[in-house]
Amino acid sequence: MDEIVQEFLVESHENLDQLDRDLVALEREPGSRDLLASIFRTIHTIKGTSGFLAFGKLEAVTHVGENLLARLRDGKMSMTPQTTDVLLAMVDTVRDLLGAIEAGGDEGDIDVAPVVARISAVLEGRAEAAVVETTTAVPAVPVVPAVPVVPVPDATAEAEPTEESPHRRTVAESSVRVDVELLDTLMQLVGELVLTRNQIVRQASHQDDVDLVRSAQRLNLIASELQEGVMKTRMQPIDNLWAKLPRVVRDLGAQCGKTVTLAMVGKETELDRTLLEAVKDPLTHLVRNSVDHGLERPEARVAAGKPAEGVLTLRAYHEGGQVVVEVSDDGAGIDPERIAAKALERGLRTSAQLAETSPNDILQLVFLPGFSTAAAVTNVSGRGVGMDVVRTNIEAIGGTIEIDSVLGRGTTCRLRIPLTLAIVPALTVECAGDRYAIPQVSLLELVALDADRAADAVEDVNGASVHRLRGSLLPLVRLADLLGVESDRSDGHVVIAVLQAEGRRFGLVIDRVLSTEEIVVKPLVTQLKAIGAYSGATILGDGTVALILDVQALARRVLNSDVLEQERVADTGARPVVDESLRLLVAGLGGDRKVAIPLSSVTRLENFPTSGVEHIGGREVVQYRGGILPLVRLSSFYGTLSDRTDDELVVVIYTVGSRSVAIVVDEIVDIVDGGGDLQADVTAHGVLGSTLVRDRVVEVLDVRAAILSADPMFYEASEVDLRPELQEAM
Amino acid sequence: MSTRLVTFTLDGHLYGVDVASVQEVLRGQPQTRVPLAPQSVAGLINLRGQVLSAVEMRARLGLPDRAADQEAMLVVVRVAGETIALLVDSIGAVVDVEEEQFELPPDTLTRASREFLHGAYKLEGQLLLALDVERAVAA
């Protein structure tokens, strides 16, 4: 394409963003001569250049628009909503035309007559009765993709030269436009330099040559500065992203019948342009959410003692090597109870789980896939897709998202985004002789257990390993198992990298921790990306390639608890019971009495509120996951006195075939490998026998008898092969 | 119209790829294996700071594994915007072939290798199999 046309397009896109902002601002201050003058100049410039470059349609539209603007500027007409609408329609048409020029080199087949007619109608003072369509019906999404340039911050926004030269430069003489691809290449080269620097510095540290060491140190410094400098050139102010939002907010507000003031703080905050692209959609989504269901309607606001006009605030700032972007509204806030009710209704959480979750953690449930609290589906939101996608997108670039809300006061969504993507701090680890890098953003802590401690500290919940980390259970996943390789660590030591992704924690068991270093992220070929385990590759100090683990993807693979649970339940039905009979759940029954329950049929451990116990036909039952479970109180079965007096029941959900019961115990003591044989010499009511658990004799519960005492029909429907002992116990 | 092909051997057969798509030819490089990857992905190599995936052409074409003592050669090709290294047995000469020498793959060819071949050029005393690189390296 012609270089002049190219430059014209680049300038015009910047001007259009400015126009959007000015027009929205003008609507608030219809009398502002400054704004009118600025708008007039911008349109005038586009018109001048389009005439020069023989873009007839563009000239026609801007010409009539200019006439309207001139009248407004000269005070011969005053701004009305209708005027704003036609002016915005004009901007949209100009945008379309520019898009067509960019795509095909000419104005294409865009029809400008309707918009010219509308503007003329306003000019001649005719009522716009014939043309009822308003701009709010036009999608507010900009038609033209961002042109790859690096505009110098604010140069376009502040200085609007008045001269009419077609070669008008919006950028100050002191700056140069650079092709983004060139910048990307530079960035890559600097990445290489940093790696080579790492190698040389490492080698030099083993040498006695003082001069070499000194040179290596200087190289170290220079490379760091160069890296910083190149990274800076890729930085763009977040305002580039925000410029489009006033228009989005205005149109959306009109659509929802709300008036919204948009405040922006920290426009000049800069971040890497690839990241800027990546946060564009999530940010727009959050803004739309805030307008659509964050802010109340004017009458509701007035009733709540707030100004009728809602305030949406965008705030950006640097904090701790990250960029923080906040979207906050002063709307109704999110009611945790509504979220909880919704989560219960959808079966995403049980009431027992919710009772233990703090209100703030309940808010985070909105990030679960398929979650929506919108009462009705509007064409803006409420389809239940969104926040999970927002989080996935933000986490994909190594960022995090959190949500705060005060009922009646408003909601704040906070994004934390890394400054750049290409170079990330990482932990290198070893597994099965291979090295892998784990990005530090996902890493919470490292836990190393020696063989003695590992035997105790790594426990087994029905086939899934867990570790008690400061009292709470951390699910463990062996990296070797995930990757289908053979771990070469056989001394019983367990090294755990505690990772956070998708809002949850899990422990990745690795062979060894090597070091922390800054790595340069290299993309993988599509074929390998599709595996869903690696987010890229990097070159280590010794020149070998290491894979970067995609923690989000791994988490998604291992932490889909509902699926895992369902599989487990299905498994239990099919698997011969004897296989797992060696594993025992040890439960306390009060009065120091402990019994062991074969883990094979234990599907879950739950806490139920005592108030949830209902009575059907003289038996106690609880509602659980849409079904009704009979309650088996072991303490009454054994005639022991329960020590528990609080209003919560500790329950073991026991499933055979398609039926379940809830066995109430006093406490869950442990899960152990029974190991020892079942000794039948200690026999008593309800006891199958005894076994040695950690040098203590524990009675093994006769589950069958216990269950039959609560539900005599329990086994009738099940077709499970019974263990011989169980049959005898009948 | 003549075409210029870079030739290499695999299990005694002569293969060729268009010289325009070949970036360079290298000796064996240290490879990092990629667990869970398709079997034909031999690993990742560091080519002057660029991470390339190496595709074992023997596995791709359904040929028997290379003898343990035989070092692989690498043909680095650019396909669909990605740079990929093909692992082959040995590198041959660069050959000019004419269109008259070309024939579609014979019907007796096994399916796996048939899928990845454009056809064969009848050289004197030998057949040169023209590899469809794009399909051979695609998933």
UniProtKB/TrEMBL annotation, chain B:
<dbReference type="GO" id="GO:0005829">
    <property type="term" value="C:cytosol"/>
</dbReference>
<feature type="domain" description="CheW-like">
    <location>
        <begin position="2"/>
        <end position="139"/>
    </location>
</feature>
<dbReference type="Pfam" id="PF01584">
    <property type="entry name" value="CheW"/>
</dbReference>
<dbReference type="InterPro" id="IPR039315">
    <property type="entry name" value="CheW"/>
</dbReference>
<dbReference type="InterPro" id="IPR036061">
    <property type="entry name" value="CheW-like_dom_sf"/>
</dbReference>
<dbReference type="GO" id="GO:0007165">
    <property type="term" value="P:signal transduction"/>
</dbReference>
<protein>
    <submittedName>
        <fullName>Chemotaxis protein CheW</fullName>
    </submittedName>
</protein>
<dbReference type="InterPro" id="IPR002545">
    <property type="entry name" value="CheW-lke_dom"/>
</dbReference>
<dbReference type="GO" id="GO:0006935">
    <property type="term" value="P:chemotaxis"/>
</dbReference>
